[in-house]
């Protein structure tokens, strides 16, 4: 089954949105297989956002994502990578539709509440960057038969 990496950014943690966000993905029917509250180091931030190294906002991005704890998660389910991106909404909350996390809770592009992997390659890379194999749990859920 497909897995993706999602993370409540420091603004989401400070604004008490961890439970709200976990709730949305749970109710959707996805399965949480790993989660932790953590402080991201400068090194991890630069590696995670490596694709944006040359962008003018890179410094701000690293400063922001290391400015407080984040809630890192791995979710599992059919098409979870793409579906989670849809549930997050567009990068700029001003363009994100109501009903999406960014549409409902974000205002500016710099503080857009949530991160999610944008492809199978990023998902694999980001899961391995943030989690050890021993931190991911493989288990059956009773409700699976009512989702699939
Ligand atoms: P993320 O990686 O955080 O899930 O966001 P994303 O895929 O929707 O957007 P991405 O293009 O990967 O950009 C990463 C983060 O950089 C910040 N950003 N600022 N000032 C700007 O024009 C600008 N553009 C992007 C955003 O916080 C975005 O989430
Ligand atoms: Mg991205």
UniProtKB/TrEMBL annotation:
Gene3D superfamilies: Nucleoside diphosphate kinase-like domain. GO terms for biological process: CTP biosynthetic process; GTP biosynthetic process; UTP biosynthetic process. It is found in: Cytoplasm. Its main location: cytoplasm. Its cofactor is Mg(2+). It is an enzyme of class 2 (transferase). Residues 1-138 form the Nucleoside diphosphate kinase-like domain. GO terms for molecular function: ATP binding; metal ion binding; nucleoside diphosphate kinase activity. Belongs to the NDK family. Its EC number is 2.7.4.6. Coiled coil: none annotated. The modification Phosphothreonine is found at residue 91. (Microbial infection) Catalyzes the phosphorylation of dZDP to dZTP, when the bacterium is infected by a phage that produces the substrate for the synthesis of dZTP (2- amino-2'-deoxyadenosine 5'-triphosphate), which is then used by the phage as a DNA polymerase substrate. Major role in the synthesis of nucleoside triphosphates other than ATP. The ATP gamma phosphate is transferred to the NDP beta phosphate via a ping-pong mechanism, using a phosphorylated active-site intermediate. The lineage of its organism: Bacteria, Bacillati, Bacillota, Bacilli, Bacillales. ATP binds at residues 9, 57, 85, 91, 102, 112. The modification Phosphoserine is found at residue 122. Homotetramer. GO terms for cellular component: cytoplasm. Signal peptide: none annotated. The active site is at 115 (pros-phosphohistidine intermediate). It comes from Ornithinibacillus halotolerans. Keywords: ATP-binding, Cytoplasm, Kinase, Magnesium, Metal-binding, Nucleotide metabolism, Nucleotide-binding, Phosphoprotein, Transferase. This is Nucleoside diphosphate kinase. SUPFAM superfamilies: Nucleoside diphosphate kinase, NDK. It catalyses: dZDP + ATP = dZTP + ADP; a 2'-deoxyribonucleoside 5'-diphosphate + ATP = a 2'-deoxyribonucleoside 5'-triphosphate + ADP; a ribonucleoside 5'-diphosphate + ATP = a ribonucleoside 5'-triphosphate + ADP.
């Amino acid at each position: 089954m497909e897995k993706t990496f999602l993370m409540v950014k420091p603004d989401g943690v400070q604004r008490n949105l961890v439970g709200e966000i976990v709730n949305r993905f749970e109710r959707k029917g996805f399965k949480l297989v790993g989660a932790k509250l953590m402080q991201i180091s400068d090194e991890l931030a630069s590696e995670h956002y490596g694709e944006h190294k040359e962008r003018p906002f890179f410094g701000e991005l690293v400063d922001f994502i290391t400015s407080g704890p984040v809630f890192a998660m791995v979710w599992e389910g059919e098409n979870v990578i793409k579906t989670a991106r849809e549930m997050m909404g567009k990068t700029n909350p001003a363009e994100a539709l109501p009903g999406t996390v960014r549409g409902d809770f974000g205002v500016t592009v710099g503080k857009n509440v949530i991160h999610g992997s944008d492809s199978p390659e990023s998902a694999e890379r980001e899961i391995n960057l943030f989690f050890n194999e021993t931190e991911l749990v493989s288990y059956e859920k009773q409700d699976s038969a009512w989702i699939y």
